[in-house]
Amino acid sequence: MIAIYCDKLPRILKTKKYLEEKLNVKITNQGREVFVEGTPEEEYTAGKIIEALNYGFEFKDAMLIKEEDFITEIISIKDYTKRSDLSRVRARIIGKEGRTKSTLTQLTKCFFQVKGNDVAIIGYPENMKNAQEAIISLIRGSKQANVYKFLEKHQIQPVLDFGLKDNKDNL
Questions:
Q1: Domains plus CATH for the chain?
Q2: 140 vs 19, 63, 86, 135, 136, CA distance in Å?
Q3: Grouped pLDDT means (10 residues each) for the chain, 171 residues
């Protein structure tokens, strides 16, 4: 059984039945603590999804964690800056009317959420490195345009295998 402290408890309780069905766990709460009971693998996945919902991700984005390809990362803003006005740093990551965050989502194919002094990211492992670099660059004060240029230059290209190359294992 794992316990998770939740700020957004009503959001989790509203989807409790659905989460229990989809994740194959039993969810209970006591005050602001949410308890998840099930097999260790299911508890871990449910814990990650509840944390994502607590960070403010949309329900459909949080449920992507159930797919084995998606992972979550949390970056603390305080680890990468010595500035005292962290609200300005958060504003740089979000951008005017959320434009910076949505542009980062398009370029990295990852989902971002800013809560307090943390930035949470959900995405594929191969895209996560670029997403982390982009967030860290913004925290350290890089211009948004330079971050976008970096992301466009370092796009992950899908590998297409048409079976034309000889496999060394078969030789």
A1: 2-66 (3.30.1370.10), 71-153 (3.30.1370.10)
A2: 38, 31, 11, 9, 6
A3: 89 90 92 92 91 92 86 93 91 94 94 94 92 95 94 81 62 50
CA 126 to mean position of chain CA atoms? 13
Q: Which two tokens mark 31?
A: 């005050």
Residue 85: helix, strand or coil by DSSP?
coil
C-alpha separations of 113 from 18, 100, 171 in Å? 23, 12, 49
Cβ neighbours, 10 Å, residue 109: 15
Q: What is the pTM of this model?
A: 0.83
Say which residue the tokens 């603590």 belong to.
33
DSSP summary character for residue 156: P
